[in-house]
Amino acid sequence: MKAEEFDSRFDEGEDMTSSLDLSGARRPGQERSRVNVDFPAWMIDSLDQEARRLGVTRQSIIKIWIAERLDQPGRPAA
């Protein structure tokens, strides 16, 4: 399909996702990088308890709490 036809069909409101190759699509700023952090046992126990209470994994609760902290007003922009 030529670009003009694609543009025309898109402009008419047609769903064009089946015409796209999304296999290499990336979300900017969402690349993952592994980080290892050592916590004392009491902290792991507390994290696990809170994660169970909320019905999420330990990793999820850590990510949520760090994201909340980084999103606080008054924090300098990166």
Which features characterize this protein?
78 residues, mainly alpha, 3 helices
What does this 3D model show about the protein?
The protein is an all-alpha fold and 78 residues long. It has a domain at 38-78. Helix content is 46%, strand content 0%. It is built from 3 helices and no strands. The protein has helices at residues 3-11, 41-54, 58-70. Helix 2 (41-54) crosses helix 3 (58-70). It is elongated. The two termini are 42 Å apart. The mean pLDDT is 89.
Average the pLDDT over all residues and give the rounded result.
89
Shape: elongated
Q: Output the structural class.
A: mainly alpha
Largest sheet: none
Distance between the termini: 42 Å
Summarize the helix and strand pattern as letters: HHH
Share of residues in helices? 40-55%
SS strand fraction: under 5%
Low-confidence stretches: none
What is the number of helical segments per DSSP (H or I, 4+ residues)? 3
Report the C-alpha radius of gyration, rounded.
21 Å
Count of beta strands: 0
Gist of the model:
The chain has 78 residues and is mainly α.
Describe how the helices and strands are arranged.
Layout: H1 3-11, H2 41-54, H3 58-70
Helix pairs in contact: 2-3
